[in-house]
From TrEMBL:
One of its GO terms (molecular function) is aryl sulfotransferase activity. GO terms for biological process: 3'-phosphoadenosine 5'-phosphosulfate metabolic process; xenobiotic metabolic process. Residues 46-299 form the Sulfotransferase domain. Signal peptide: none annotated. Belongs to the sulfotransferase 1 family. This is Sulfotransferase. InterPro entries: P-loop_NTPase (IPR027417), Sulfotransferase_dom (IPR000863).
Length: 307
């Protein structure tokens, strides 16, 4: 019922004009397409850390955990700038206005080492220099249904994204990979395969929700860092959903005011596992499950869609 109401409201909004292009079959905004050559030629450094995810799979959360580890639990240092300034979003650039201009590429290039960089790129589009430099990469994957729901609400509130259409239409777009950054299925499977050849720590959003301490310890080990119990507890506290939702340095309320409308849906909405049950009808769920089974038949990758 609530969803129908939301859709009625969205019909009254002027349609957004976000032009879409493609890079090797993957949908990108036109703006990303125009800067693609520079992104592909990006020069990674050996001590770069790349945080890679499909959009809305726990990226900001992972970035904050990593920053807290790197700053040894110093909250003030972690609030030195917003997430998107601390960790450049490699392929993303906007030219909404002079005030809202953002180029992750330029930010990254100007940043002193060691850098932590964020991307949503599928594995085949990661700039080759990351592999050449044998960089460490943390990849986080989230179950398809919750990822879809979160991505849908993100499209609703973010004018920098294409109009999602109705919930029904968006499910279809997601299933066919006709969304920015392409197919969720190809994305999670591609990175899963790559972890056997490269220095990739592959994490699951559901594990992070169920046992954040254990997953933070995995990240610590991967980054070859050590913190005492007090710092670990601090990291756990300050990277909890409730604290991050209220932190203007992580909740995206500080910049992009003209682009992100938090009254439609907050950037940090629920952060739970299983919210898909509030969105999918029985018929949609059945159709989705059948399609999912086919698309995931060729991988050993297993997800939990409830805890």
């Amino acid at each position: 019922m609530a969803l129908d109401k939301m859709e009625d409201l969205s019909l009254k909004e002027p349609l957004r004009q976000v032009e879409i292009g493609e890079v090797e079959g993957i949908p990108f905004t036109k703006r990303m397409c125009t800067t693609w050559d520079q992104v592909w030629k990006f020069k990674a450094r050996p001590d770069d850390l790349l945080i890679a995810t499909y959009a809305k799979a726990g990226t900001t959360w992972t970035q904050e955990i990593v920053d807290m580890i790197q700053q040894n639990g110093d909250v003030e240092k972690c609030r030195r700038a917003t997430t998107y300034r601390r960790h450049p979003f490699l392929e993303w650039s906007t030219q909404e206005s002079a005030a809202a201009r953002y180029s992750g590429l330029e930010l990254a290039e100007a940043m002193p080492s060691p850098r932590t960089i964020k991307t949503h790129l599928p594995v085949q589009l990661v700039p080759p220099s990351f592999w050449e430099q044998n960089c460490k990469i943390i990849y986080v994957a989230r179950n398809a249904k919750d990822n879809l729901v979160s991505y849908y609400h993100f499209h609703r509130m973010n004018k920098g994204m294409p109009d999602p259409g109705t919930w029904e239409e968006f499910i279809e777009k997601f299933m066919t990979g006709k969304v920015l950054w392409g197919s969720w299925y190809d994305h999670v499977k591609g990175w899963w395969k790559a972890k056997d050849k490269h220095r990739i720590l592959y994490l699951f959003y559901e594990d992070m929700k169920e046992n954040p301490k254990q997953e933070i310890q995995k990240i610590l080990k991967f980054l070859e860092r050590d913190v005492n119990q007090e710092v670990l507890n601090k990291i756990l506290h300050y990277t909890s959903f409730e604290i991050m939702k209220g932190n203007p340095m992580t909740n995206y309320t500080n910049e992009f005011q003209g682009i992100m409308d938090h009254s439609v849906s907050p950037f940090m909405r629920k952060g739970v596992v299983g919210d898909w049950k509030n969105h999918f009808t029985v018929a949609q769920n059945k159709k989705f499950d059948e399609d999912y089974k086919k698309k995931m038949a060729d991988t050993s990758l297993v997800f939990r869609s409830e805890l």
